[in-house]
Design goal:
The complex is a heterodimer.
Chain A lengths: L1 E5 L2 E2 L2 E2 L1 H17 L2 E8 L3 H7 L5 E6 L8 H15 L3 E5 L2 H14 L2 E12 L2 E8 L4 E7 L4 E5 L14 E6 L10 E7 L13 E5 L9 H10 L3 E4 L1 H5 L20 E5 L5 H7 L4 E6 L6 H4 L2 E4 L2 H16 L1
Parallel strand pairs in A: 1-4, 1-6, 4-5, 5-11, 6-10, 7-10, 13-14, 13-15, 15-16, 16-17
Antiparallel strand pairs in A: 2-3, 7-8, 8-9
Helix pairs in contact in A: 3-4, 5-9
Chain B lengths: L1 E5 L2 E3 L22 E3 L1 H17 L2 E8 L3 H11 L3 E6 L8 H14 L4 E5 L10 H9 L3 E10 L3 E7 L5 E7 L2 E5 L11 H7 L4 E4 L12 H4 L2 E7 L8 E2 L4 H14 L4
Parallel strand pairs in B: 1-4, 1-6, 4-5, 5-11, 6-10, 7-10
Antiparallel strand pairs in B: 2-3, 7-8, 8-9
Helix pairs in contact in B: 2-5, 3-4
Classes of the chains: A alpha/beta, B alpha/beta.
Chain lengths: ~325, ~260
């Protein structure tokens, strides 16, 4: 009985979610009285594989020139064989841009159960029970998953990586399949987000706005408030999608990760993608109408109210204090 | 070019409090408004833009109850040419992979060049239907697309990775492309569009007409089974300030001052 974690890496660096999954996977393997194994695929991933042996008792490393860029097609080809041979009870991968491309197609091919956005799991009565987010993180669901294997897509920036340093075994896995012919997709390159204005990762104080701002015109008093306290205005995805703030002002997993001294979240319910980008702030103040908004789980202080009522008063009060 | 857009009708819960019902397996929906799943709206816009450029037909496809037709009519009013509703009778308990299989049964009967979907269902938070559907059909796919270009026999997609960078990817056609929000500006239905939508074709299918057996779908066909829904426990909750707006703001201003946060 084993848990296999697919290591995720980009441009020669192991992504944090890999360590998060290994920490969570270790606990699950322990519950199952089973083993934990990491799998890393790439064109030249020896160094990363050996780094992983400090976090997993066994690391399976498969190298092939065609695995240079992540592609669900080539990865799937290798993993289908590997999973059939090694028969893990649980196959864990990140619920990421890379993982989401791969997980469901693997599940179809393997006729396996799969769950997205997983935040907890337990092995009970020879069955995997997972908890996953629903409705923007406002609810969780517990589900049982058939294991043949069970494919678990783990929420990023959720589990805490462990500082455990072990000396695991490195296993070379020979990838001798033809991965070059018959491909239906081709990687053409990566375009980095260019920043033309302010680098929000360098600001000490951020005022974040979310869906609760409702209309573009309501952004003006919020901008004035931000200016009055020397803060930079940032936003969650819906505000950027609407075109009210530029992409470089987006905080969250598909935007920027920020760690300011103070983050004031206004009308942001706190979808996990946003929380992933701002939970590292020293102090978080949240204003939201919904008392159960997930943002209050990461905030230090909360006001349950309409941001449009709070902002003008807060601006005035803080100005009085300054003078 | 014949393009299908898979859409889902979901409760709008972004700005409202959600409560679990007595069964513990669903939410109380009576007071909620229902909307089209937002990423699906971006997928539809992309299909309409493509049709404006290169002609063709846009077909909406949805699995759901009779009420789903409201969402389909809105899509038709925005400019889709036809709609198909696959009735959800017999599908209770189906997980995302099973639903992808139901869609695949439909797409095997019809000839499409492209299938667009949203990248995630905002109610269940499943991001599986697009890639799973593609796998059932043997087609390539791309998740989290925000830009789409149609070429001779292939498409080029820019898809969002973490940190805001984009992967540029080429896919053979036919393919499934799952759109993230933000890549375009979804249009609203015009008055004329709403009027025209009333007479546009809306086909109704069910699992039997797609050649599916009851035990392939629903609870029995699914490899995941819902045990319960609940409000997640909060490990480190915020100190919630009480009082009138003035009182709450004064308290927070004092905290900001005392802690030297500004």
């Amino acid at each position: 009985m084993s848990v296999t974690v697919l290591a995720e890496h980009r441009q020669g660096t192991i992504r944090d979610v890999t360590y998060e999954m290994l920490a969570a996977g270790r606990r699950l393997a322990h519950e199952m009285d089973g083993e934990l194994e990491a799998v890393i695929l790439g064109d030249d991933c020896e160094a990363m594989a050996s780094e992983l042996t400090r976090h997993a008792p066994r690391v399976v490393c498969g190298c092939h020139p065609a695995l240079r860029y992540f592609s669900y097609e080539t990865y799937q080809h290798v993993l289908l064989k590997l999973i059939k041979e090694r028969k893990p009870a649980v196959f864990m991968l990140a619920d990421s841009a890379l993982g989401a491309d791969l997980g469901p197609s693997l599940a179809v091919k393997l006729d396996a159960g799969i769950v997205s956005d997983v935040v907890d799991f337990h092995w009970t009565d020879n069955e995997l029970v997972v908890s996953r987010g629903m409705y923007g993180g406002k609810l969780n669901a517990d589900l049982s998953v058939k294991h043949s294997p069970a494919i678990v897509m783990v929420r990023q920036s959720f589990f805490r990586p462990e500082p455990i340093k072990i000396k695991g075994e490195l296993v070379h896995y020979e990838v001798n399949a033809d991965l070059e012919t018959g491909l239906q997709t081709r990687h053409l390159g990566i375009e980095e987000l260019s920043i033309s204005g302010i680098d929000i990762t360098k600001a000490d104080i951020l005022v974040g706005v979310g869906r609760g701002v409702k209309e573009e015109k309501n952004l003006e008093p919020v901008q004035e408030f931000a200016d009055s306290i020397g803060a930079v205005l940032v936003g969650s995805r819906p505000v950027v999608d609407a075109g009210w703030l530029p992409k470089e002002r987006q905080v969250g997993s598909s935007g920027k990760t920020v760690k300011p001294k103070l983050y004031i979240a206004l009308g942001i319910s706190g979808a996990f993608q946003h929380i992933a980008g701002m939970k590292g702030a020293d102090t978080i103040i949240a204003v939201n109408k919904d008392p159960n908004a997930p943002i209050f789980a990461v905030a230090d202080y909360g006001i349950v109210d309409d941001l449009h009522k709070v902002v003008p008063v807060l601006r005035k009060r803080l100005q009085e204090m300054k003078s | 070019m014949k393009v299908a857009v898979c859409v889902k009708r979901i409760p709008d819960t972004a700005e409202s409090e959600i409560k679990v019902d007595d069964t513990g397996k669903d939410i109380i929906k009576d007071k909620l408004a229902f909307i089209i799943n937002e990423p699906d709206n971006y997928a539809l816009e992309e299909a309409l833009i493509l049709r404006e450029k290169s002609g063709g037909t846009v077909v909406l496809v949805s699995i759901g109850s009779k009420e789903t037709e409201e969402v389909l009519r809105i899509g038709l009013a925005k400019g889709a040419d036809e709609a198909v509703r696959i009735d959800n009778a017999g599908l209770a308990g189906s997980d995302a992979i099973v639903l992808a299989g139901v869609l695949a049964a439909y797409f095997r009967k019809e000839q499409f060049d492209l299938v667009f979907t949203g990248c995630i269902a905002q109610d269940t938070q499943d991001s599986q239907v697009g890639p799973a559907l593609a796998q059932f059909l043997g087609w390539p796919h791309a998740m989290y697309a925000i830009r789409f270009e149609n070429k001779d026999n292939e498409v080029v997609v820019r898809r969002e990775l973490e940190g805001g960078s984009l992967e540029v990817k080429k896919l053979n056609r036919p393919c499934v492309v799952s759109f993230q929000t933000g890549g375009n500006a979804p249009r609203y239905a015009s008055i004329l569009g709403i009027r025209q939508a009333r007479t546009k074709p809306l086909e109704r299918l069910d699992i039997a007409s797609l050649g599916l057996e009851q035990d392939e779908v629903g609870d029995t066909g699914s490899k995941t089974r819902l045990i319960k829904l609940y409000v997640p426990e909060v490990s480190s909750a915020a100190e919630i300030l009480q009082g009138t707006v003035d009182e709450k703001v004064s308290k927070i201003a004092t905290i900001i001052k005392e802690k030297g946060l500004l």
